[in-house]
Amino acid sequence: MSEYKMDQPVGASPLDRGVQGIIGEPLNRVEGRRKVAGDVPYAADHKVEGKLAVGVAICSTIGFGRVKGFDTSKAEAMPGVLAAIVDDPRIPRETAGFSDEKLVTGNDRVDSYGQSLGVVVAETFEQARAAANAVKVEYDPGEGRFDAGAGRGGARPLGDEGMVPDTTVGDIDAAMASAPHTLDRTYETPSHAHAAMEPHAAIAVWEGDSLTVYTSIQITSGAKKKLVNTLGLGSDKARIVSPYIGGGFGGKGGLGTECVLAAIAAKRIGRPVKLVITRQQLFHLVYRRSDTVQRMRLACDADGRLTAFGQDSIVSQNDGRPFYEPVPLGSLALYAGANRSFTTKAYTLNIPHCGSVRAPGEAVGILGVECAMDEMAEQLGMDPVEFRKLNEPEKDLTRNRPFSERQLVQCMEEGARRFGWERRNAKPLQEREGEWWIGRGMAAAIRVNMLTNAQARLRIEPGGKVVVETDMTDIGTGSYTILSQIAGEILGMPIESVEVRLGDSLFPAAFGSGGSMGAASSGSAVALAAEDAVAELAARMGTSVKDLTLKDGHAIAGNRRVPVGDLVAQKTIETTGTIKPGAMAKQYDQAAYGAHFVEVAVSGVTGETRIRKVTSVFAAGRILNAKTARSQAIGGIIWGIGEALTEEAVTDPRYGNFANNDLAEYHVPVHADIPHLDVTFLPELDDKTNPLKIKGIGELGIAGIGAAVNNAIYNATGVRVYEFPITLDKVLAGLPAEAA
Amino acid sequence: MREFQFARAADPAGACSAAAGAGRFIAGGTNLLDLMKLEIERPEKLVDISRLPLDEVEETPEGGLRIGALVPNADLAAHAAVRMRYPVLSRALLAGASGQLRNKASTGGNLLQRTRCYYFYDTAMPCNKRDPGSGCGAIGGFNRIHAILGASDKCIATHPSDMAVAMRALDAQVETLKGDGSTRSIAISELYRLPGDTPEIENVLEQGELITHVVLPPPPPGRHAYRKVRDRASYAFALVSVAAIVAVEDGRITSARLAFGGLAHMPWRDPAVEDLLVGQAPGEEAFRRAADKLLENARGYGGNDFKIPLARRTLMATLHDIAGGRA
């Protein structure tokens, strides 16, 4: 069993030695054909033994207060109803996040609108839903704090409570007071929902006192722990199975209410229970991304060199929740400036609590930074790319440590070249096609790179088939494919000979999918296991690893070429690889970088924005699969465009609900909103990150793109919007009075 | 979804009699089924009319079209006569929903679709339309998509249809059949009601009265335009839409028909606005006066205040596009 701790830079990566030639190739997803044919089971699709009943969550219709009582008599008398359960103390109120130990339980009080209060089980979904609606809940409403505007005034400093402790370097106030060029601007972003395509769903099956839950969860081992903690089970009494996930984005990072409600209901009625959270319920039952207020302070000397760089934020959270949106996470090391301030305050909102949503920190934090950088460049009369290049720091000036690999400047230069940045007009309102103003903007992208504990098991079975097992998940990102490529590359196997099994808490524990660290962590574990297998194959060939070549399912040494299947005919090879983060994570500032370039057309009549062109260049370590990497990038870019233009979960401050709680009115981009996206990854190997020399890419694309859109809208129209999303009414308000 | 009775009608008369009492007609179901799942609609009985022979588009002796109530939106938008002679209708249809929904949605059902007001859609919220007397959640709440014309203190919802806006500009007639076998033809201008004190009553149809056809008079002279402004490029309801048919001869506007979506509880049309344009030379001044007239009684409710300048600008740009007169 190989264990590796990232305490020093890796030398040669096992992937550097592989000669199969499949790493980096734009291979199709190994399960892609089955997915599009509807032939893989998503959470609610699993076939289980026994007669399945269907549960529907009972959800609160007030935003804050106490529950005085329930009347389930009408619901229980309805057709097909098996149980209306409101008397179990383990009924969870909301979805748990990544770091929670268990779900918050107890239906005697309401923390937020739409929280779960119980579950109705019936023979059919329609019966259960109708009965859930018929449960009468008697409330004693309290004075909930639902109004963001009112709450922010009383925000309290977080100090070191947050993921990013408050940090100041030098004296930003003095720097602002003395600099010839300063900018002090506040940007706001609203609450966001994950809105994954596949809703949260679970099927719970009991065998005696052992529970199996088929669900859609990003981290099975973490979910299992939260499940047994919440239900009060022994740690070996639960199994989570989550092989296919229709999008998670952090919203399936912890453990959903559906798992606990289904388990409670299944135990109560003695039958397996399926429970799918409805789209409207999801908006309230799953944590949101916090709204943010970001005060950006920049100061420059006469030459445009930053002397101050600060981002001080206000975020919200419901009571008793330890997560705070880490707004400055990606900003800390982004630019130069001797005087720095990154602080965060938090205030209470009694609305669904906050948790991880794709790229916590950067997805919103880079908006403020990169819009402010654009404003400062304009103030200086400098090109935005040149201004950023001038302020490229030689190291992380906030935490005073070197970068591992950082190619931000190269990304900007290559992006500018591919995009045709020289066509940008220095001033707004210069270029017009009919009623449409044309503008161009850019922004940097950054996402911190992380590594976490992960383990994987690998077997070469008689016949030469390679089986990889880990409780890593594939949330649609391509985990099955890249892990197959890693094992295949190192073992010299065509990808068809590798079978990767994921998403089962019985498999060796990995972190799962989240924080863009799944590929690095699980991939390293698989590579380490494969390296051990290579050593064993070398031994069976009677040669050394150095003198062994593995390709196309054959082991080659000297003039011998033996099918790997023959080498394992007598005895299967089984190995386990374990990766652990180490000193590299502290010694070096590790991040993936990129640059977005956007061309927009803005209607001079209506203020509507159309994205016409996007060029993004990223540098994110070794790319394992050019196709799935690009898909990750464009998925992030598309979300980021939606974040820029439309996405907002709107709270009605009278009730504490999200008024636009479906995908008809919570607007994400549709095909017509998105042009061709030109995505490039620069060659990079980062030997400080992990044995694969890769970096996380799942959350990189979303970072910064919205600022590039905003900067392009300004470049087109001269209208600078400070409150995201940039809906047409906000642009319209600043457009010239003259119509088309 | 509550349990309900289901009957399939063999002919239009049978549909009407099956719907007598409390029955609701269902064709494509693209709106009604969603509302039933959320228990906003709780019909005791559904009468399936989807197989009735009302899916033809016929020429009328007068030179117009008679459109069966079950003609799918997609087919109507693609119909050669509609595309050639009523382009405003084809464009309005294609501006609505998605390809899949347009395949399913019927002509009659589109006319009678219900508002997308957030408060109508959440049964825990007050809504005089869904639950008369409970209040209007949108007034004082989130009202980005709401009405600026013809609203009341009981309801500020809008009608979401694009198709109906074009039909309003085309002076369509809605033909119906009642349970007693009688028929009537209702001008589309008379079909819808403003909310007033009874926002739950949205049109003049009686219980069990079936829309069988929509008749378009011969196409009016002039150029057609349908412009829809919304929060994304497709698959969103109109914040403001304009259906315009304007004829210009010898430098003067000779005919103008203007209908608006997204502004009111019904497709909005104001003859006084059109009268102001007829006889005028196309141009900024004439268009501004028309816009002033359209919006003279407009009222915003906070979140939708922007619709007033947006409607003005959209109208004027649309008029410029089809009637000219740009400086």
Automatic annotation (TrEMBL), chain A:
GO MF annotation, one: oxidoreductase activity
UniProt xrefs under InterPro entries: Ald_Oxase/Xan_DH_a/b, Ald_Oxase/Xan_DH_a/b_sf, Ald_Oxase/xanthine_DH-like, AldOxase/xan_DH_MoCoBD1, AldOxase/xan_DH_MoCoBD2, AldOxase/xan_DH_Mopterin-bd_sf
Gene3D superfamilies: Aldehyde oxidase/xanthine dehydrogenase, a/b hammerhead, Aldehyde oxidase/xanthine dehydrogenase, molybdopterin binding domain
Pfam families according to UniProt: Ald_Xan_dh_C (PF01315), MoCoBD_1 (PF02738), MoCoBD_2 (PF20256)
Signal peptide as annotated in the record: none
Residues that span the membrane, as ranges: none
Residues of the Aldehyde oxidase/xanthine dehydrogenase a/b hammerhead domain: 37-143
Protein name (database record): Periplasmic aromatic aldehyde oxidoreductase, molybdenum binding subunit YagR
Source organism of the structure: Lutibaculum baratangense AMV1
From TrEMBL, chain B:
Gene Ontology molecular function: FAD binding; oxidoreductase activity
Matches recorded under PROSITE patterns: FAD_PCMH (PS51387)
Keywords of the record: FAD, Flavoprotein
Keyword Flavoprotein: yes
FAD-binding PCMH-type domain location: 1-221
Gene3D superfamilies named among the record's database cross-references: 3.30.465.10, CO dehydrogenase flavoprotein, C-terminal domain (3.30.390.50), Uridine Diphospho-n-acetylenolpyruvylglucosamine Reductase, domain 2 (3.30.43.10)
InterPro entries: CO_DH_flav_C, CO_DH_flav_C_dom_sf, Diverse_Substr_Oxidored, FAD-bd_PCMH, FAD-bd_PCMH-like_sf, FAD-bd_PCMH_sub1, FAD-bd_PCMH_sub2, Mopterin_DH_FAD-bd
Coiled coil: none
SUPFAM superfamilies in the cross-refs: CO dehydrogenase flavoprotein C-terminal domain-like, FAD-binding/transporter-associated domain-like
Name by which UniProt lists this protein: Periplasmic aromatic aldehyde oxidoreductase, FAD binding subunit YagS
Source organism: Lutibaculum baratangense AMV1
Organism phylogeny: Bacteria, Pseudomonadati, Pseudomonadota, Alphaproteobacteria, Hyphomicrobiales
